Amino acid sequence: MRRRKERGSTDLRNKKRMLVFLVCFFLTTVALIIRLGYIQLIKGNEYKKAAMENWARDITISAKRGTIYDSRGKKLAVSVNSNTVTCFPADVKKGSKLIEAESSSSKGGFITSILRGINKSFFNQEESSNKEEVAKNIKTPEQIAESLASILEMNYDEILKKITSNTSYVILKKWITDEQAAQIREAELSGINIIEDNKRVYPYGSFAPYVLGFTNVDQDGLYGVEATYNEYLTGIPGRMVVNTDANGRELPFGYNEYYESQDGLGVVLTIDEVIQHFAESAAEKVKSDYNAKRATIVVMDPNNGDVLALASKPDYDPNDPKIPTDKDLQEQWKSLSGKELQESWFDMWRNPAVNDIYEPGSTFKLLTVATALEENAATLESTYFCDGYVKQIPGENIKCWRYYNPHGKQTLSEALQHSCNDALAQIGLDIGKDPFYKYLRSFGLEEVSGIKLNGEAPGLVKHPENMKDVDVVTQAFGQGVTLTPIQLVTAVSALSNGGNLLEPRIVKQLIDEDGNVVENFDTVVRRKVVSEQTSKTMLQLMRESAEAGTKQAYRMGYRIGGKSGTAQKVINGTYPDGKFISSFVGVAPVDDPKAVVLVMVDEPDRNIGYYGSIVAGPVAADLLENIMKYYDVEPVYTEEELSGVDAQTVEVPNLLGLTIAEATKKLIKANLTSNITIEIEADKIVKSQFPKAGEKVVKNSVITLILN
Question: What is its main location (predicted)?
Answer without folding.
Answer: membrane
